[in-house]
């Protein structure tokens, strides 16, 4: 049965806006952290904690809101997560010391983390099978639109002086307001309604086909589904170790190894964002034709190869800008699939919970990469650190060989369950 519910364009816009705010926020802090230590008198440990605080908060937010989403529905929580983001984006801008900034960033991360299972599950459930990959990749690509926007904002606010970052943080809160308003008018996911027995009719999947015999968490963590959950989470974890371990430090890398000027660092960040967007544009055409596995394996393989080459050749100076632009373009092929893949293979009753769990595991990898990278560079050197990240990407590549293909197939057909579809 081909099921194509109405409302996919609106769901795409409000879902992708959440990823845009995520990209904006994490990219703003990656440049601001070059200035915040002097303004607030932070030591190196505090700098690491502030840099990774929102990622830590995402671990909690993704699990809690993912669980609640499967119980209460997607719509009821779609505005709440960004309200949390808005409040603590403002308190981040007003922070006067380490503790205030750390707690604000941590709680802001709860809102961002909660948006991952909500937005990706909603988008997956609204998208038609034949083009679901394009919708999902398009939504995730907005992360890098947010990154590009943050660079533009920093470029214009930098002349304000050392506390320009406060205005950058506050702008993030302002950007979230129209998104919250739009989300309040969003209808409930039809597939969630089907799974609860609240939507029936001709041309609509049956409740038993939607649920696949799965009722709740006990089934998700049972022996049938748990191995798949741990496997996809591990792949995403390994990807994020390298992706965030390097990605959150692009401004710092360019500042230390390539470009002395703060303005040059901003321009280089723009180039990186444009490289990522280019990668997503290509992935848009590939994900529903070549398939998820081919796109994921191409991305992880390219990441491992490029990081290995960069480490062996000991790249430095201005060459780091085009090098990382190419790297980040291919990185997005893997990034998009690792993010939305759990929403395709787990059935509706536990889709958001599974996505929340996988997101939390991936953020643990992100925190590990972000916290470890400065120490790795200090102990091993920049080049050897790249090689180590190449190894984690290679392991993720090997694990991804065992993932199943989901392109152009209905969710009730491809999702895992406790019984076969009737």
Automatic annotation (TrEMBL):
- Kindly list the residue ranges recorded as spanning the membrane: 12-36, 48-68, 135-158, 164-186, 225-246, 266-287, 294-313, 319-342, 354-376, 382-403
KW Ribonucleoprotein (keyword) present: no
Q: Does the keyword Nucleotide-binding apply?
A: no
One Gene Ontology molecular-function label = carboxylic acid transmembrane transporter activity
Location (main, coarse)? membrane
Organism classification? Archaea, Thermoproteota, Thermoprotei, Sulfolobales, Sulfolobaceae
> Which Pfam families does the record cross-reference, listed alphabetically?
Sugar_tr
* Domain Major facilitator superfamily (MFS) profile positions: 11-408
User: Could you tell me the keywords of this UniProt record?
Assistant: Membrane, Transmembrane, Transmembrane helix
Per the record, membrane topology reads: Multi-pass membrane protein
Organism of this sequence = Metallosphaera hakonensis JCM 8857 = DSM 7519
Q: Which InterPro entries match?
A: MFS_dom, MFS_sugar_transport-like, MFS_trans_sf, Sugar/inositol_transpt, Sugar_transporter_CS
Instruction: List the protein's name.
Output: MFS transporter
Please give the PROSITE patterns that the UniProt record associates with this protein: MFS (PS50850), SUGAR_TRANSPORT_2 (PS00217)
A cellular component annotation (GO) from this entry: plasma membrane
Q: Where in the cell is it found?
A: Membrane
Give the top-rank taxon of the lineage listed in the UniProt record for this protein. Archaea
């Amino acid at each position: 049965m081909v099921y194509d519910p109405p409302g996919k364009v609106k769901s795409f816009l409000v879902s992708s806006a959440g990823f845009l705010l995520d990209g904006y926020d994490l990219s703003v802090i990656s440049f601001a952290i070059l200035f915040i230590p002097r303004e607030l008198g932070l030591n190196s440990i505090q700098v690491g904690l502030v840099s990774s605080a929102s990622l830590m908060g995402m671990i909690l937010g993704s699990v809690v809101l993912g669980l609640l989403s499967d119980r209460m529905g997607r719509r009821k929580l779609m505005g709440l997560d960004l309200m949390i983001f808005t409040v603590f984006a403002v308190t981040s801008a007003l922070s006067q010391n380490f503790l205030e900034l750390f707690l604000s960033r941590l709680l802001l991360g709860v809102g961002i983390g909660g948006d991952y299972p909500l937005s990706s599950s909603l988008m997956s459930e609204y998208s038609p099978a034949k083009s679901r990959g394009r919708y999902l990749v398009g939504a995730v690509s907005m992360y890098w639109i947010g990154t590009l926007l943050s660079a533009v904002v920093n470029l214009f606010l930098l002349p304000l002086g050392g506390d320009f970052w406060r205005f950058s943080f506050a702008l993030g809160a302002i950007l979230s307001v129209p998104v919250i308003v739009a989300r309040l008018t969003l209808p409930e996911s039809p597939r969630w309604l089907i799974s609860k027995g609240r939507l029936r009719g001709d041309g609509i999947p049956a409740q038993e086909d939607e649920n696949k015999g799965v009722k709740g968490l006990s089934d998700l963590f049972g022996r049938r589904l748990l191995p798949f959950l741990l496997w996809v989470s591990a792949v995403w974890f390994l990807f994020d170790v390298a992706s965030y371990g390097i990605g959150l430090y692009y401004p710092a890398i360019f500042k230390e190894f390539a470009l002395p000027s703060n303005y040059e660092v901003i321009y280089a960040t723009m180039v990186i964002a444009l490289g990522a967007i280019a990668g997503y544009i290509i992935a848009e055409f590939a994900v529903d034709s070549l398939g998820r596995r081919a796109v994921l394996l191409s991305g992880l393989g390219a990441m491992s190869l490029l990081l290995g080459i960069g480490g062996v050749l000991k790249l430095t100076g201005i060459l780091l800008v085009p090098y990382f632009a190419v790297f980040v373009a291919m990185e997005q092929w893997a990034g998009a699939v690792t993010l939305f893949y759990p929403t395709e293979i787990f059935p509706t009753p536990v889709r958001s919970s599974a996505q929340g769990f996988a997101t939390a595991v991936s953020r643990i990898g992100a925190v590990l990469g972000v916290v470890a990278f400065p120490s790795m560079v200090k102990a091993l050197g920049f080049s050897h650190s790249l090689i180590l990240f190449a190894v984690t990407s290679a392991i993720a590549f090997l694990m991804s060989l065992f993932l199943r293909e989901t392109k152009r197939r209905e969710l009730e057909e491809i999702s895992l369950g406790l019984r076969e579809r009737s």
